[in-house]
Write a structure and sequence with these properties.
Elements (H helix, E strand, L loop, with lengths): L19 E4 L6 H10 L2 H8 L6 H10 L5 E6 L2 E10 L5 E7 L8 H15 L4 E7 L3 H7 L5 E6 L2 E7 L3
Antiparallel strand pairs: 1-2, 2-3, 3-4, 5-7, 6-7
Helix pairs in contact: 1-3
Length: 167
């Protein structure tokens, strides 16, 4: 899983991050998340999922199968503009995944979602969170350094990162 942030396209309206609320989702929020996903570019979805997908099945399963205390949504009014979740990966690691709609990227929303999720994870005793980041997204690795000490390896063009959140 990976965090995705991209440069906002020229000509898009100015967005104020102070107008964004970070809240726990309800089952009824799936439609808003899918609408946000549809507004994301193909490139944004590729960077988030590390492949070409519309992401609909992933978020459908996420809302159906996982407790909402492991997920946060970013809202601008009644519009979902970002989603972050923690899940148990195939290796048993706690994986972090963040997706922010193109027009809202590089404004700190992904960082806010991440910080809020990690406070909850730390409170439940989670010592380390894992993130996979495409090699093209080195700036995300630099952003993650602000959270805590990192253990980073790269293989096949993907950074494999463990973040120590125990401190």
């Amino acid at each position: 899983m990976t965090t995705v942030m991209m440069v906002q396209a020229t000509g898009t309206p100015h967005r104020l991050v102070s107008e964004v609320a970070v809240l726990r989702p309800t089952a009824s929020n799936l439609e808003a998340v899918l609408a946000m996903l549809a507004r994301c570019s193909r490139a944004t979805r590729f960077h988030r999922f590390h492949g070409f997908t519309d992401g609909v099945a992933y978020y459908g399963a996420l809302f159906r199968d996982r407790p909402v205390d492991h997920m946060l949504l970013a809202w601008h009014g009644s519009t979902c503009v970002g989603v972050a979740n923690l899940g148990v990966g195939a290796t048993g690691d706690i994986d972090l995944a963040v997706l922010v709609e193109d027009a809202w990227q590089r404004r700190g929303i992904g960082s806010r979602l991440t910080a809020s999720l990690l406070v909850s994870a730390r409170a439940t005793g989670v010592p380390t969170v894992h993130v996979d980041v495409l090699g093209d997204d080195l700036f995300i690795v630099q952003t993650l350094r602000r959270i805590g000490p990192l253990t980073v390896s790269i293989e096949f063009g993907i950074y494999s990162i463990d973040i120590d959140i125990s401190r």
